[in-house]
């Protein structure tokens, strides 16, 4: 038993050290067939998963339609469209709305605030400010 093991071990050691290897005349052809089989399996796997994902997307779209949900891409596209519509015709950023009463008329505004304050003061104080 030990003789058989040692003979097999020395034969393998010789191959590892660069000794004579058994040359298979069809090795290149077999390797090419193996690579082709791997490519084919990969293509089949990709096709299978693409089909499964397409079926899932159909189901997802049905749910979105049923509940009125929009895709993230659709939401972003709508937001971009609204920004573009708001900025249409403008070369700069959109102007902020100025509330009424704010603006260039500071003197009149100051007088109106003073009049409002005076109106709420007691009678004798009102007389003092009116003079």
TrEMBL record:
Localization per record: Cytoplasm, Cytosol; Perikaryon; Presynapse
GO cellular component terms, semicolon-separated: cytosol; perikaryon; SNARE complex; terminal bouton
Name of this chain's protein: Complexin-1
Composition bias type Basic and acidic residues, residue spans: 12-50
Subunit annotation: Binds to the SNARE core complex containing SNAP25, VAMP2 and STX1A.
Species whose genome carries this gene: Columbina picui (Picui ground-dove)
Residue span of region Disordered: 1-50, 83-109
A UniProt-annotated Pfam family: Synaphin
Keyword Glycoprotein: no
GO molecular function: syntaxin binding
InterPro entries reported in the protein's UniProt record: Synaphin (IPR008849)
Keyword Coiled coil: yes
UniProt GO BP: regulation of neurotransmitter secretion; synaptic vesicle exocytosis
Similarity-based family: Belongs to the complexin/synaphin family.
This protein's UniProt keywords: Coiled coil, Cytoplasm, Exocytosis, Neurotransmitter transport, Synapse, Transport
């Amino acid at each position: 038993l030990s003789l058989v093991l040692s003979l097999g071990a020395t034969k393998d050691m010789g191959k590892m050290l660069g000794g004579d290897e058994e040359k298979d005349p069809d090795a290149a052809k077999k390797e090419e067939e193996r690579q082709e089989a791997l490519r084919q399996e990969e293509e089949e796997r990709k096709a299978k998963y693409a089909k499964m994902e397409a079926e899932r997307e159909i189901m997802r779209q049905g749910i979105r339609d049923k509940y009125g949900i929009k895709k993230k891409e659709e939401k972003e596209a709508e937001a971009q469209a609204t920004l573009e519509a708001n900025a249409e015709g403008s070369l700069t950023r959109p102007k902020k709305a100025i509330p009424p009463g704010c603006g260039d008329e500071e003197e009149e505004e100051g007088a109106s605030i003073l009049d409002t304050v005076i109106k709420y003061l007691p009678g004798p104080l009102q007389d003092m400010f009116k003079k």
